[in-house]
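REQUEST FORM: STRUCTURE PREDICTION
Request ID: SP-0412
Submitted by: Lab K.M.
Chain count: 1
Length (residues): 348
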Amino acid sequence: MKRILCSLLLLVLLSGCTAISSLSTTATPDTAEKEPISSVKSTSAATEKPTEPAPTITELAERRISDILKADLHSGSASIDVDPIEQYPELPTGCESVALTMAMNALGCKLSKTDIAENYLQYDDNFAIGFCGDPFSDGGAGVMPIGIIRTVENYTAATGAPIYAYNASHHPLSDLYKFIEAGCPVVIWTTYYMDEPMYTDDGMYYDDEYYMWYYNEHCVTLCGYDRSAGTVKIADPLQGMVTYDADAFERINQDIGGWSVILLDTSHLDQPFTEAPTEKPTEKPTAKPTEKPSETQPSTKQPTEKHPESEKPTAAPRTEIATEKPTIKPTEKPTEKPTEKPTVKPKP
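STATUS: Completed
RESULT:
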């Protein structure tokens, strides 16, 4: 009897194993069919292109500047509305801060005369990258384009203003006219009253470029031009709004290094760039004016001579935004201008 029971149990076990083997065999094709689907999904995911990040403001600004430079100059004359600001009496050696203030206000800022110098101006012992000395005194020296660009960056970081500063140094006036036509004011270096540059033997290097120092270093805002008349319109911190011969102005600017900085409004960079239309001829007036408009006489105030690099006051480097008026004690300013034209020091 026991043998019969054992035999029956053995038969049951054998039947179960056969069934399990049969199930696993029939399941194999389903599994095999599913594998290609999984493989197709992974291949499809791999071929999808990653989403490109949106361009930054800097990238958009550089593209716009490139578009402006590539465009043809269409208008025979153009100008930007700039309210002139005189640097005296508060900033006897702060022409760069005042020129920048006029240019930034033309783009919608509401800066007072001393806001830039007190709160945002980049200071450094090297005048190539920051203002050296005290612009509120007669002992200030000056600053070149890199320092002005950093000053704009200080301002935009603190306020969020939509302004981008571009180093346009060494560009000819014909290029700068394109920026004026596009509504971009230009902070540009020259001399007091367009006098001949009074060079010194001192200078500074920065990023493999040499910045020579000259006694009558001056900074203004280029805000207009007239090609038929051969003139440029200048907002001068010493004289107000003045007009200069374009060739003479360009010669002096290029002789001292060709320094200039463009200010670009970045609030509409999402819109495509369109070139200015060809200017239509201006119609002649039908009636002659009864009175000749009075011309604004430029200021005759003599500027404070800026010190050469060897005599400029020593200013502690400022790597952060200035929050107080500099308290640097100025050195004694020169008593008179040189009687002879200094020898021009060539660039190395």
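NOTES: The two ends are 118 Å apart (CA to CA).
Reviewed by: T.R.
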